[in-house]
Amino acid sequence: MSMTLTLLQQYVRRRIGNPSATDVTDATLAGHVNDAYEEIRDKYKHTRGRARATFSTVLGTDKYRITDVTEVLYKAWDRTNDQELEVVGINYLVENDFIDSVQGKPVKVGRFEDYIQLLPVPNGVYQIELYYKEKFTALVNSSDIPDLPDAWHRGIGILASFNYYDVDGRDAAKATYQMQVYKNWLTDKPVESHEETEAIDSGVEMPSLARQTDKRLDFDHSS
Fold first, then answer.
1. Could you say which DSSP state residue 48 is in?
2. Best label site of 5, 41, 67, 87, fewest CB within 10 Å?
3. How do the domains of the chain map onto residue ranges?
4. What's the pTM?
């Protein structure tokens, strides 16, 4: 069952002894819920936190800002030439920051701070597709649902209960108990990347990238 922000707040409130909204506000609980949600989302591989998008390059521009798009770049393709680009690290970008006069068909891509960089500098307009990890979006409205499989929603509440006792409740014993409950709860939880591997090994067809939600990115082309 999917849990909304309101349901998660109610769940955490019950776990910490049903304090009144005066003693522990909904805003306080929402903060702990979002901290727990972000930690679980970052620590475990869930395909729902991934997306793909396309954008068009600009002649002579190698850097494209992605401040509000992604934290991690997994893969990229030049769809104009139907070729996968090699994803490189920060060190490679620093050591090979091509000058504008070196242009050609992009063959490599890397993410650095708030932009991605194509190497070499595009010598024309290319359709580039990215497969990436979406940035975390906190739950704000009462009806907001975590972008995680339903099986993981209860864990958000348990970890949020630990966060409460660790930060606000200042009760080490109760914090330790909630953490142990959380660790026990984690032992049999499915991680989508593991399930995909097992399914592929057993001959079960898994959803391809092409079936995932497409997005069109309008990048700031400034460098």
1. G
2. 67
3. 5-46+137-200, 49-134+211-216
4. 0.68
